[in-house]
Design a protein that fits this description.
Elements (H helix, E strand, L loop, with lengths): L3 E5 L4 H10 L5 E6 L11 E4 L16 E4 L5 H4 L2 H22 L3 E5 L11 H15 L4 E6 L3 E2 L7 H13 L13 E2 H14 L3 E6 H9 L4
Parallel strand pairs: 1-2, 1-4, 2-3, 4-5, 5-6, 6-9, 7-8
Helix pairs in contact: 1-6, 3-4, 6-7
């Protein structure tokens, strides 16, 4: 039986890895993006859209699995309101489209400290997204909550680059209950998302960084 997937956020760090991996597992892949990916020999359907008009493309969400890797920073977005639109409004609307179109499962990347009651704006928005997604009562919802994400980003993020340089020095100390705080490779998150989809387990599921690493270790081409 052929499988189909839809990806949002293919131009990002996790989304870029995920797109490559999806081509090995799915017969049909729909990519929604606001700018061309410029990949040669593409084996997916690329749709250039305005994310403010996601509902106009709801029919494209009639797939098995929807992968959402949308995300930005307040600095890049320009304001808290613009950040919230990318990290809360768009993922939530995508999930609503997925539910109405009949998608079987929705997978999304948030953050380790996501909490709707957090005093920190970033973590609060991520937590509010998780809560709103759960209220939708999707057939199958997988929320991945990574720690610091490692990988080569196209845009400069000074603080994250500094943390990446230091990570080999302190990661070994994060053992036992502290393993969840270890930085994690973007590709491992992508691998874990696909593994989660393959399990086909109804309900809502959340995964910490250490759990994401365990799922990535079980990934098989």
């Amino acid at each position: 039986m052929s499988k189909s997937a839809l990806l949002l956020g293919a131009t990002g760090l996790v989304g870029g890895h995920l797109l490559s991996l999806l081509t090995l597992r799915y017969e049909r892949i729909v990519v929604l993006t606001r700018r061309e990916l410029n990949k040669q020999d593409a084996v997916y359907e690329e749709h250039l859209i305005a994310f403010d008009k996601l509902k106009e493309h709801e029919s494209l969400f009639n797939v098995d699995d929807v992968y959402c890797c949308l995300g930005t920073t307040i600095k890049k977005a320009g304001s808290q309101a613009a950040f919230r639109k990318v990290d809360y409004d768009y993922p939530l609307e995508a999930a609503q489209c997925a539910k109405r179109a009949g998608a079987k499962r929705f997978l999304v990347v948030t953050a380790m400290g996501a909490d709707p009651k957090s005093p920190f704006f970033y973590s609060r928005v991520k937590g509010e997204l998780e809560a709103s997604l759960e209220e939708l009562q999707l057939p199958e919802l997988h929320i991945l909550k990574p720690s610091l994400i490692l990988g080569d980003r196209k845009e400069e993020r000074t603080a994250e680059q500094f943390a990446q340089q230091l990570s080999p020095l302190f990661s070994w100390m994060l053992i036992g209950p502290l393993k969840r705080y270890r930085p994690i490779q973007a590709k491992h998150i992508a691998m874990a998302m696909i593994e989660a989809a393959n399990r086909q387990e109804p309900g809502t599921h959340r995964y910490r960084s250490d759990q994401i690493e365990e799922w990535a270790a079980g990934y098989a081409d």
